[in-house]
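Quick one, T. Sequence first:
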Amino acid sequence: MQKRLLLCLILAFVLLTSPAFVRADGTQLGTISGKVVDERGAALPGATVELTSEDKGFGRSMPTDLSGNFKFALLQSGPYSLKVSLAGFDTFVAKGNIVSPDLTTTVNATLRVAKVSEEVIVSGEVPLVDRTNTSATTTVSSQLTERLPVARSYQAIIPFAPGVTDPASGRNDGGNPNSHGALKGNNIYLFDGVDTTDVTTGTFGQNSNFEAIQEVAISTTGISAEYGRAQGAVVNVITKSGTNKFAGSFKVYFTNDSWNAQNKGSNPINGASFARQKNDTTVPNYNYTLGGPIWPDHIWFFGTYETVKTTDAAIQTFVSSVHPDETGQSAVPHLNQRLWDGKLTFQLTPSHLLTGQFNSDPITGFITDYWNFAPGIGSAELQALTAQSQNACSGVGCLKQGSWSGVFGSKVTGEARYAEQAGNITVAPYLGNGAAFFSFSDNLYYNGATFAGIVDRPRKQANLAFSIFQDLGGSQHQFKLGVDYQDLKSISSFDYPTDTLYYVADFDPKNRANPVFTVGDIRQNFIPGPSTSTGKIWGGYALDKFSVGRMSFNLGLRVENQTSNSDLGRSVIDTTNFSPRVTAVYDLGGDGKSLLSAAYGRYYQFLVQAIADSIFAGVPQQSNYDQFVYDGTQFVFDKSVRAGGNNAVVNNDLSPSRVDEFNVAFQQQVGNTMAVSVRGIYRKWNDIVDDAKVLNADGSLFQTPQNFGDELRRYYKAIEFTFDKRFSSHWQMLANYTLSRSEGNQFANYTSQLFDFPGDNCTVKGVGTLPCTTAEAHNQNGLSSYDRTHIVNVFAAYSMLLGPIALTASPVFNFQSGLPYQRQRSFTVPTGATALYFFDPRGSSRTPSTYDIDFSLEAVWQPVGTSAIPMVTGPLQIGVRGEIFNVTNQQKVAYNDRISLLPDQFFGAPVSRGALQFPRSYRFSTVVRF
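Structure tokens:
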């Protein structure tokens, strides 16, 4: 019977994960290593070291080598017990040693000569500082996040890391942050090592059930050669797996907008109040989890499912200075999301591990102002908003993956992973289906949505790596070789509603059925059609981690080839890049607790599908059109614009931009549960990719992407201080302070307005007519729009017992300097599109500095038994929890994309409630855990 069950489980695993499997970038497993010595410090070779997983039951054993060293590689996350024995010596036992992904937990053992046979038991080790991995990585475990007042998403955890800003969204619901001066599309998002980043935008491409998260590791600098295609953060979501004990939970979360504070303030331009119409509906959301053994010590499962119905804050359209009574409207998004995650873990032998996993996150009900692509520009009315749903995938999840890891003796390890990701985004007009109008009278859009159609970006990926551990010349070396492969597609089929876009002197919403046109108004008739581009990425890396005395080194080189074909099958990108990564660490105290490190790394941009889709597509979306101009009685043909593959010239020498990064750091572990660090960082972008658009005589658009030298500049420099306190003595905390500066003159992924339309003249209101290139480049150098001089974050939780009741209080504090902005005005370029003229240097003004305080209080009753440590789940727990966001109800101007930027008396004034901090809000929940 047991054999039949085992065969069925193996068959299910193979069907789930498909026939190929390889390892992902980096490693999702950890290591325990150490040295065994006697009381005089002499090495003890031949001692038996036994390792046992405390929650899963499996174990390994090995003898120490001639130098007394041992190493257990590729271990699942969790607590482990270590037992060291040797004839004639007392037995050494260390319990509760925590293993974390991609980190080494060092457990050194000193054996005493036995007088009476006994065990010497010591407390376990926690890897807070690691001489084998000194990257700036903020690791946030579920032990903390499940108690903090944060949005229930891994994206909300990313701003826990120092040097991370997200100016477009509130801190509790952000998604695509700027990390250490990089752009929003320069991060990589991994689920258990699988790349889930959107293949075209470079933004996050997958959501996760919050209860499935074991921990989130955010690496922002000093990143090793295992990781490529990221100039910003590497965000790795590690998911939970089952243990030898059945455990689960049922949670219900309640929200109601009527509980929340009202929006303050009003638009100073027209006096319109920012007060919203509250929705007095209590919305419950449900979550279920269950995990446990299928075959104890060998096979475990974990699964979770959540339904999320959210009534979001209303989307407010811009208030027109020309039509104030018909604009400034609100739309309430009602989101419906289903999040499910399942994981099967199979410890085939003590040295070989198989895992299979699936994840899905379909969601409907989004309402977005996609016209708000630049400050001061956006939708004036509900008809211009866009409705959106995403990831309506079929089959076994939007993401499915399988992995293997194995240890061969004491010298060789291997890892492999295969994954497929699917899903789509559909967009449609929120109201109606009319053509969109851009009005020059107020720089706002009317009547039509930004998009109508669908995009789909499936990906297949496969990775493999092997490590060899070898002593050479008295030094311990880990030689690691790896290769990874990705097969990408980007499918687009969308356009403007009715395939038409108007640029008019003024649009009157009262007369939308029969709009009044004036001489010079423009109508663009777009040519729709589906577009599918493809791309491939090959990456390989080699590194050597070794130690010489108190010095440790990580010398790595990553080689990466990015290729892409347009939707016409035309090869548009074929580039190979070499990324050296070097880290040196000096162990000041010789005990691995005080580390001084210096690192250099080169990081290349993820380039492939973005350029293939936008510049080289033979059927580009919303780019090819016939233009007509109103002559007073009718629209007369003016020109045809054919952007994309037929006119863009392939640059065979095009390379992704690169960041050269230098950082120095000091890390100090204090005791067994605390660590502090200080780090200095300097980053400079080189070979920034941009284009120079030219309008040909026949009206066609000519452009080609190229690498620019010193004409384009981007820099980042910072000093960071961090404090990390793991749970002990009833409390835990993460805190950091960042002093930074991000500046330059180009902050676009691959194309900006700089250098466009040389030889043509443009007219700027209030300035006059001047060369387009002069108007586009005027005052462009300065602070980035996401620069924040000071950022302070504190995340803490304190627990105490009152009889059978465990109380946990969790405050969160955030302070941020204001965001830069400048006086500007849009003007028309020769294609009829718009660019921005800066009257002042970039970033010469700032929004006010802001702070907010969030707080949660949880009370948990354990009717059966009482845990001495409140953070540890007892046999049964029943709890209630209340959360307050923005306790002091701060509502200062916090975002620079919804303020007036025109050079007049209203410059810097908020034009919608979206410019201000979110009002105080509440969330309540109940939970049953077992």
